[in-house]
Design goal:
The protein is α/β, with parallel strands linked by helices and 180 residues long. It has one domain: 4-Layer Sandwich (Purple Acid Phosphatase, chain A, domain 2). Helices cover 33% and strands 17% of the residues. It has eight helices and nine strands. It has helices at residues 12-17, 27-40, 61-71, 84-87, 91-96, 102-109, 161-164, 170-176; strands at residues 2-4, 46-49, 77-81, 113-115, 119-121, 124-127, 136-138, 156-158, 168-169. The strands form two sheets. A five-stranded mixed sheet has the order 4-3-2-1-9. A four-stranded mixed sheet has the order 5-6-7-8, with no helix packed on it. It is globular. 35% of the residues are buried.
Length: 180
């Protein structure tokens, strides 16, 4: 399993907020660079995204569907724990179908598993926002030092794209927490 969070596809301001190595007008290059990392993952891989997939109110459902289809190439499986930008039903989802929940719409986008709340896998809690658990794998804080949020490094692992710049493998998380 490969884990990431806070990809923020199509989000111009994330470039400035998190010092991503792009100019503000290079969101398509940023998107393509991240998507090319999906392309490198093995066929059939499962990718767990801890939220905040897309941030851009001008997109349509079909724009995001094309993005998800690209991420799923070669039989990849996409799981998501909805983040704050996902749960609030972004405008592109509201315009598509106001009657469906965010969970229903993310399934319709092509995700294989959609979780509105944190999940437990083995001895770990996976969540979008940091949670007060031992062995919490989370996103949301981007590349802000954990200490600024009062988080204890021995209990938290930040998988945000802006912190890791890559996918984190499940066994790396187990090693970080001492192998249990």
């Amino acid at each position: 399993m490969f884990i990431t969070s806070d990809l923020h596809f199509y989000h111009r301001r994330i470039i400035e907020y998190c010092n991503r190595p792009y100019q503000p007008d290079e969101i398509y290059k940023m998107n393509e660079d991240i998507l090319s990392e999906f392309d490198k993952l093995p066929s059939g891989a499962t990718i767990l995204n801890l939220g905040d997939l897309v941030v851009n109110s001008r997109l349509t459902f079909y724009d995001v569907k094309a993005l998800v289809d690209r991420m799923k190439l070669n039989g990849k499986h996409l799981w998501i724990i909805l983040g704050n930008h996902d749960r609030s039903l972004p405008k592109f989802l509201k315009k598509y179908d106001k009657t469906k929940t965010a969970v229903e719409l993310f399934y319709e986008l092509g995700f294989d598993m959609v979780c509105p709340l944190p999940i437990s896998i083995g001895n770990y809690i996976f969540s979008h926002e940091p949670e007060d658990y031992v062995k919490n794998v989370h996103g949301h804080i981007h590349n802000t030092p954990m200490e600024e949020f009062g988080l204890d490094r021995k209990n938290h692992f930040n998988v945000c794209w802006d912190e890791q710049h890559r996918f984190v493998q499940f066994d790396e998380i187990a090693k970080y927490f001492g192998g249990n």
